[in-house]
Amino acid sequence: xxxxxxxxxxxxxxxxxxxxxxxxxxxxxxxxxxxxxxxxxxxxxxxxxxxxxxxxxxxxxxxxxxxxxxxxxxxxxxxxxxxxxxxxxxxxxxxxxxxxxxxxxxxxxxxxxxxxxxxxxxxxxxxxxxxxxxxxxxxxxxxxxxxxxxxxxxxxxxxxxxxxxxxxxxxxxxxxxxxxxxxxxxxxxxxxxxxxxxxxxxxxxxxxxxxxxxxxxxxxxxxxxxxxxxxxxxxxxxxxxxxxxxxxxxxxxxxxxxxxxxxxxxxxxxxxxxxxxxxxxxxxxxxxxxxxxxxxxxxxxxxxxxxxxxxxxxxxxxxxxxxxxxxxxxxxxxxxxxxxxxxxxxxxxxxxxxxxxxxxxxxxxxxxxxxxxxxxxxxxxxxxxxxxxxxxxxxxxxxxxxxxxxxxxxxxxxxxxxxxxxxxxxxxxxxxxxxxxxxxxxxxxxxxxxxxxxxxxxxxxxxxxxxxxxxxxxxxxxxxxxxxxxxxxxxxxxxxxxxxxxxxxxxxxxxxxxxxxxxxxxxxxxxxxxxxxxxxxxxxxxxxxxxxxxxxxxxxxxxxxxxxxxxxxxxxxxxxxxxxxxxxxxxxxxxxxxxxxxxxxxxxxxxxxxxxxxxxxxxxxxxxxxxxxxxxxxxxxxxxxxxxxxxxxxxxxxxxxxxxxxxxxxxxxxxxxxxxxxxxxxxxxxxxxxxxxxxxxxxxxxxxxxxxxxxxxxxxxxxxxxxxxxxxxxxxxxxxxxxxxxxxxxxxxxxxxxxxxxxxxxxxxxxxxxxxxxxxxxxx
Length: 780
Description:
By secondary structure, the protein is an alpha+beta fold. It has 17 helices and 33 strands. The two termini are 17 Å apart.
């Protein structure tokens, strides 16, 4: 997308100055607006043409059956699919009885601009109808960060060449027709007419609809109200079961535009009655209309001013990466800011990809960013996991295990994966949640969270590992038959990532349980159980191949046959769409960073030499068929001194959606890859790690393509600013007390009173590793 001639590089916005219907669906994803509760794809105001219509409410879904060729014990009976809810974006326009449709007449100018500082989507159009009448249309759209249930549009129509009769139809539409889904498993299932009408009404310039789902028994309401300014006009409203419409008619003169402001409110519930949902929506709508359009815009700007003040990342030397970084941070915020008790889906609220499910992506890739920039949102995401804990405990019991088995993919906490080798067997999701809990506690010192939600999650996940693993004849603790992050290597014994993350989980649960004995007792824990967790962690098997001098990502992995990369053609990637899993599982081929991710998150378990050797070995096997891989490879490449390669991988992660690298941006943005841009810069080139004692450590180094890097983070009640150049790094406490930090293992005190500037040691160059044939990252 960013290389498309319509798009321009700008550090604070995404701008397209022409409309290309060939990339319309991708544009709708990148121009999407959301707040974690409501999601509106960047569809054109008039609704057509479109690539993929989309309006979403976080957690609002329908059930669908999961058919199996053969039944199996413990298989989920049904899946959950996010559905396209009532569309409140639609504003149709008629010019002297002709529909405003960009496929007809002459499109003289078209520009879209997503402003990261204001949170507004601007659109400007000049169009001449087939009959020769020219008009200008300007619209501005927002989904409010402050008023969680509200979105709004300001829509202006201006005549250019004489008096023009116009009709504006502002609509709410349910059960829109959607494109047919493809056979790609990453694409959502399409459910036809998933909403059942319950009520509709129209009064003045207000319309409302209430619907429910048939199987999941959820109820949602949507309502719209309007303020209208400009020439004399007439207003008519009407409603039917799936449509509410407010029609405005006027004759406009040049220089006298008609302005229609549309306020839209949404609400949904699994429990509330129809009148209660309708009243909830009406209350939100009244509040939005009371503050008005200007008030909503001012609130939005103030909210984002505060966010950028604590979270901005400045990249010098690469304008595309600068734009991509702020684009990424903005969309990560949009996916999570007001989720409040709901999951952060893999595609956020920008599209229906992966059926709107949340995966381990949230805890491992998205929450690190939020923990250090928007910690309240990180806590909310973990509280959502906590609300699903009873379901995870039930799932573990069904599998004959203790503790909690969290789902591989879900919306509500029920397992929605019908493929157990890459679903149920990927038990590492529990340790990923534990890792996110520990990171949040260390970064915030939130004692209430620690002894409540945190301890509950750590204890439940530790019990799973104690139950899932076993001691062998040599008294080593093994975890067999699991799937790690690499989905091309399923049902493996002693996956190192899983074992190291489980080891951390067990130790943390023991430490926290000992710190809060009364709470542990409430969870039916004991000193004996704590001792068992410590013993299992101490005896954990961490495989090592002494002949090769590297760590196999799982036991016996290095004995497998290496995939025939030389005879795999570029159009056969991703491999999962062209080869049977049976063939992938028994070969040395890595879908995404696995052992490399273990080195990123559990670096203390590896020597520096081992990291370098491991990285070289897995580079030649990793095909990056997942958007989750490039970032981890960037971080570890930077750590082992491969700065140019790290830069290449960072760019791939940063441009995953802006360049449509995986050819599926049309179905929504890749939230984990977007989040990992921050990680690639901060943990990669900034070298940020948290030590075993809970201190922040930095080992900054920049690649040749970047001349400077500045980032801001929140840590232990302080706001810190880190400014890096090729030769030195400067550290400052923007607000809060002084704090001890490490710079390339040198301890120093950062304070608000002075800037601490330290030199960066020279890097000893190493040979560049190779990648699989045809999978070398694009050189930056």
